[in-house]
């Protein structure tokens, strides 16, 4: 049910265009590296844009409905069209623009599992250009614009096809949905994700960062290492709080009623992953893994 709701919210046409972002704002995180996110509505996941004299690279390309607006904003910043798109995982708010950017001449790159999941999903496999045409199994490195962009697979975290991107010289990490900054994360248990894998993935990113590292999350504002440490601490404590009640033999509904994550509600509850949904995700993970 949660996966269906995600597809409906992030992929399907909505009744009112006002629910979608009408423009994208940009923040230059480091010279030549920007984060773009939607304004006045939901644009999709955050997008990283790498600009330089050689190639223009996007990390993710939002939804079908907002991709043209995103690409217009990216082209204005870069001064020319996008050459490459790197998908971080197979959800409609991150890969929905694949077909559009491919039609504009971009080459889409992703992990093997992203292509496989998109091939099997008619909501994502929408036609020629929607699927990544270059895939990798473990890692791939882009040497562009004076940057070494290391794209690496993270197993069974948000999904089974996650990738993050480390810009080594710039000390920037584009996390994809391995980071929902100041938000309860969506962990897609139906697409190969796991709570334990998600926590391990976040700790891997922490091990690759230092106090000067800038993190571009899949959702939420630009962050630093300490922010990710806080987010993973919240998730670990949330898991421990729910596990204690599961171990006591309480039913899922009784655990939800007990509201063990109330301490984090004001800071981490949001429209898609509410405190209740996060609690039920943790219950399901603890009782089915």
Write up this protein.
- The chain is α/β, with parallel strands linked by helices and 289 residues long.
- The chain has a single domain, classed as Ribonuclease Z/Hydroxyacylglutathione hydrolase-like (Metallo-beta-lactamase, Chain A, 4-Layer Sandwich), CATH 3.60.15.10.
- Helix content is 36%, strand content 24%.
- It has 10 helices and 12 strands.
- It has helices spanning 2-10, 67-78, 92-95, 98-103, 112-119, 195-207, 225-247, 252-258, 262-268, 275-288; strands at 23-30, 33-39, 47-50, 57-59, 84-86, 107-111, 134-136, 139-144, 147-154, 162-167, 172-180, 214-219.
- The strands form 2 sheets. Strands 1-2-3-4-5-6-7 form a 7-stranded mixed sheet.
- Helix 6 (195-207) runs antiparallel to helix 7.
- The longest helix has 23 residues, at 225-247.
- The radius of gyration is 18 Å and the shape is globular.
- Residues 1-18 have low confidence and may be disordered.
Order of helices and strands: HEEEEHEHHEHEEEEEHEHHHH
- As for the number of domains, it is 1
Structural class: alpha/beta
Q: What is the averaged pLDDT score? A: 93
Report the uncertain regions.
Answer: 1-18
Q: How would you describe the shape?
A: globular
Q: Quote the beta fraction.
A: 15-25%
Question: How many beta-strand segments?
Answer: 12
For the record, what CATH class applies? Alpha Beta
Helix content: 25-40%
Radius of gyration: 18 Å
Give the N-terminus to C-terminus distance in angstroms: 18 Å
Strand order of the largest sheet: 1-2-3-4-5-6-7
Specify the CATH homologous superfamily. Answer: Ribonuclease Z/Hydroxyacylglutathione hydrolase-like
Architecture per CATH nomenclature, i.e. the level-2 architecture:
4-Layer Sandwich
Q: What's the tally of helices? A: 10
